[in-house]
Design brief:
single chain; globular; Transcription Regulator spoIIAA
């Protein structure tokens, strides 16, 4: 189960906690699409305990779109970096 809390600092911050699964990706995409262009967006992942592969791909895409992944747990960071490396090798 995923819990989402929207906070506004200098940037819009979505503080996420729990598990991110494929079912949650559509809601996160919807929430992100409602934010105004030009403002910074950050996903605070400090309290994420589990992500599935589809959610991980979504997080990697967010980062590629300049959405900051703040306080990202090490295992998620490593998995994103591994996925990026595999995609780079697949394109070569």
């Amino acid at each position: 189960m995923l819990r989402i809390e929207r906070v506004f600092d200098r940037d819009v911050v979505f503080s996420l906690s729990g598990h991110i699964e494929i079912e949650d990706v559509a809601e996160l995409q919807r929430l992100l699409s409602l934010e105004t262009a030009g403002g910074g967006i950050e996903l605070d992942l400090e309290h994420i305990t589990l992500v599935d592969r589809d959610a991980l791909k979504f997080l990697a895409c967010c980062e590629a779109k300049n959405i900051k992944l703040a306080r990202c747990p090490g295992y998620i960071r490593e998995w994103i970096d591994t996925e990026r490396g595999q995609r780079s090798r697949d394109k070569a």
